[in-house]
Amino acid sequence: MAEPIRVLLVDDDPLVCAGLRLMLRGAPDLEVVGEAADGADVPGAVERLAPDVVLMDIRMPYLDGISATRALAARSGRRPQVIVLTTFDADGTVIEALRAGASGFLVKHTPPEQIVEAVRRAAAGEPVLSPGVARTLISHVTGAPDARTRRARDGLARLTGREREVALAVAEGTSNAEIAALLHLSVGAVKAHISSALAKLGLVNRTQLAILAHDARTGEESPGR
Known about the structure:
Layout: E1 5-10, H1 14-25, E2 30-36, H2 42-49, E3 53-57, H3 65-73, E4 81-86, H4 93-100, E5 104-107, H5 112-123, H6 131-139, H7 146-157, H8 161-171, H9 176-183, H10 187-201, H11 206-221
Parallel strand pairs: 1-2, 1-3, 3-4, 4-5
């Protein structure tokens, strides 16, 4: 039997943590290995507990979830996947969290079965968000400043032609299986191209790759470019 997916809960509301703990413990393939009440406690908890996935609240009293996510993304070696939690799905800070290195986000009133499935998908390195929600989030990154557009386009230029094709497909919220069918590749080859692109660009997950590809394409599509 495979080892259970190890989950760390980070939220300053004890009731939220209690609800998530009960929900996740109902899934035999998930294990809640610990809790933290503030982003400042996350590095030590991750070092001690080695979670596969962190469910991270955004607003906490001392160190917010975005800063804690950014700190985890900067870690060397193995990093857990981070899903940020927010009360409002239109909260602009979600985009900042994705840029900081989060794999995706969940609103706190998401149905339990979807939260459980999101944790599984994050642990597998798959998008946490449905394609429609991913496109909605990425669409908030509009009017990219010239400097960011140039950096994004320069980044894509460093990739091979096939890596760029895969990156642009990721930006559409497409799954690995869908990309494989679209580009006539195996799923393993798609995963390899994504991993190679992430390494070349210094990114930590496919959500950051999607935002970078979106920034580059937005720059190309803007009037006068």
